[in-house]
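[User] I have long wanted to understand how a fold can be written as tokens. Those tokens are not coordinates but codes from a learned vocabulary of shapes. Could you go through the record with me and say what the backbone is doing? Thank you; the sequence and its tokens follow:
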Amino acid sequence: MQINIPDKVNKIIEVLIANGYEAYAVGGCIRDALLGRKPKDWDITTSASPSQVKRLFRRTVDTGIKHGTVTVLTGNEQYEVTTYRLDGEYEDYRHPREVRYTSSLNEDLKRRDFTINAMAYNSRDGLVDLFGGMQDLASGLVRCVGSASERFNEDALRILRAVRFSAQLGFAIEQDTLEAIRQNAGLLVNISAERIRAELDSLLISDHPEKLKLLYDTGITKVILPEFDIMMQTGQNNIHHAYSVGEHTIIAVMNVAGTASQERFTQKERSILRWTMLLHDVEKPASKTIGKDGQDHFYGHQEKGAVKAGRILKRLKFDNETLDKVVHLIRWHDYRFSLSPEGMRRAASKIGREYMELIFEVNRADIYAKNPKLIEESINKLERARRLYEEICARGECVSLRELDINGRDLIAAGFKPGRELGRLLDRLLACVIKDPALNKKDILLELSRKLQ
């Protein structure tokens, strides 16, 4: 078995071996290399203690010294070198109370989470696979090393990581591991919001976000996102829908932003779009009413959902940019486009030009998750709206105050008094320009301002 290790990683390993120590590339980098993927990081494990590692390399940083990790700097790159270790008793379902070093690679590998992450390699010894990692890679399985319940009780985040790896790799979860997830899902209450957010985000932006259903089936969402459970249990008896709110949500998430390899959106936009679709109908259960027509209706769920989504994203410690954009997209996700140039200018003015491509994508994904019989007609309308918007952009038509050919300073210079009335006047001028783009010339707007005053 030949794995192409980067020269700088190989050099670190060779220096350690030449000085009488064992050393291997280990973990996720080996898994990814065997799968033909480009590893994000290359981690090294060694029998050398941290102090011995530091003596052998001129430039090091004590990045995780209490856990046996030293970062070796070489050129502009850095690599974590960690001493073989045994984890002591875990005290908070996340961190070991103590870490003890060992001279045994076997002992180090058997404390790791999953078999596919418990393989090591160097060019002298080849692949070290003590727990069937290669077989599980070939079978497409996520399986815990040893007892799954023990691994999850050591570090409860592994429960969520198992599903995340399943989504990222397109793997199934081995039966005993899956059963242990069901039995231990409640342990996730001990994990920080930041860690949960990171795992959920990685799952969502993967090419298999349908694994959300697995989170629900195993009881994980009941602990970390109980709103999703309520969505899964809320039906939609409505001509426009064929699925429950939760099933509709999963299909919408699957249909937004394409596959990662298509690179239709940036990584940040991909995350924003996936979270938007996950939460776009979060308030439908609370908004559900039955009309005189006998059908379910969800009046006001857009605005209420935006507010609730904001609270959820704050709870998960999201950055302000993601929170603001997801909330904005949810607020406008159900906007009905008027298929006329003026209607599209008005839509862009309300929603914001910077959001239009995203809102078209949100609309498209939402349509594909509704009644299959109505998809073609709805998609055709959406494409007509997109073409109208592209024509507006091509003509450079004004849709916002900053694109107006006049501003407050111009009006003050022309004799208008500053204050709230001036702002209202600018809004009225924008409304006139949205109705008739030919009016967007400073002299015309000044004359119009005097008439509107």
The chain has 23 helices and 13 strands. Residues 375-394 form the longest helix (20 residues). Residues 257 and 270 are 6 Å apart (CA to CA).
